[in-house]
Amino acid sequence: MLHRSLFLLLVTSLAAAAATPVVEFEGSIERLDPALDALIAPGAKIEELASGFKWSEGPVWRDGGIVFSDVPQNTVFGWNEGDTSAKVVLKPSGSLSGDGQGSNGLQVDAQGRLVLCQHGERRIARLEKDGTFTSLADKFEGKRFSSPNDLVIAKNGTLFFTDPPYGLKKGEAPELPQHGVYAVTPDGKVSLVIADLRFPNGIALSPDQKTLYIAVSDPQNTRVMAYELQDDGTAKNGRVFFNAQPLKSAERKGGCDGMKVDANGNIWTTGPGGVLVISKDGKHLGSILTGQPTANCAFGGPDRSTLYITANMFLVRVKTLAKGL
């Protein structure tokens, strides 16, 4: 029989081995409005989980852990509680030949399958259970997309995505005249939803599915747009929801890129300096300042109250009082 003291020592040792070492990240949380205290508790810290990536992007919570893209490395990485580093989940992720950019934005469909914006293949694809890809959309009106960047899946199964030219190979010309925002219905019909934006990037839906948000990464006019989403999938009455251009400085790099919406309709968008927290009325409540060009974020954890952030070469997190959709 194992002596009680040895048993307790063994249990304690195993628990310590399973615990993830918390490394405080060199960033800060800027509080501009008291309302932020209801979303991020005073004293909350930014924690570094993994590093060494070339450009981390597109996080999404899947199967009890966070998965995310490293675009230049053509790889999807995964991190779970207890890991001391991120592990390769999928390679190649976005360029099957290996000579193009990897995946960018990721989502999980209602069946738990990973859906990827594949830069190199210039398409939206779904990863099947057997490891093969199914192309969900690669052309509009017979012309190839440039490089699908980010996506969101509506409750009815319609998939909305942005298509700026960032992932095109050097010397590769776009076939479509616009940096479009597109919709793909569950039966595969592709339609152009928004045609007049320059560098549409992140994309999200409000909790009631009536507002479509687009983060615009135009270096001269970075902002978040809001559109009224119609029952037929069209978007009308576009307006500037939040202008982030005045926030840019030498110390606060980056523009509006990836975003998520919490259960109460607040918008968490990457922007100059890190992640901007904006109320559903468009008020800037505060920022999670990473000190890095910051690409994207996603809620995860058992109760979806942890914000995972891909910031340049880092994966970090902040525990929040908000809950993701």
Explain what this protein looks like in three dimensions.
By secondary structure, the chain is mainly β. The protein has a single domain (23-319), classed as TolB, C-terminal domain (Neuraminidase). The protein has one helix and 28 strands. It has one helix at 4-18, and strands at 23-24, 28-31, 47-51, 56-62, 65-70, 75-79, 87-90, 103-108, 114-118, 123-127, 133-137, 139-140, 143-144, 151-153, 159-163, 180-184, 190-194, 200-205, 211-216, 223-229, 235-243, 259-261, 267-271, 274-278, 284-289, 296-300, 306-311, 314-319. The strands form seven sheets. Strands 1-3-28-27-26 form a five-stranded antiparallel beta sheet, with no helix packed on it. Strands 2-25-24-23-22 form a five-stranded antiparallel beta sheet, with no helix packed on it. The termini are far apart.
| Largest sheet features | 5 strands, antiparallel
Query: Which structural category do the helix and sheet elements fall into?
Result: mainly beta
Number of helices: 1
Number of domains: 1
Lateral arrangement of strands in the main beta sheet: 1-3-28-27-26
The CATH level-2 architecture is identified as 6 Propeller
SSE string: HEEEEEEEEEEEEEEEEEEEEEEEEEEEE
> What is the CATH fold-level name?
Neuraminidase
Shape: globular
* Helix share bin: under 10%
* Distance between the amino and carboxyl termini: 49 Å
Question: Overall mean pLDDT score?
Answer: 93
- The CATH homologous superfamily corresponds to TolB, C-terminal domain
Brief synopsis:
This protein has one helix at residues 4-18, and strands at residues 23-24, 28-31, 47-51, 56-62, 65-70, 75-79, 87-90, 103-108, 114-118, 123-127, 133-137, 139-140, 143-144, 151-153, 159-163, 180-184, 190-194, 200-205, 211-216, 223-229, 235-243, 259-261, 267-271, 274-278, 284-289, 296-300, 306-311, 314-319.
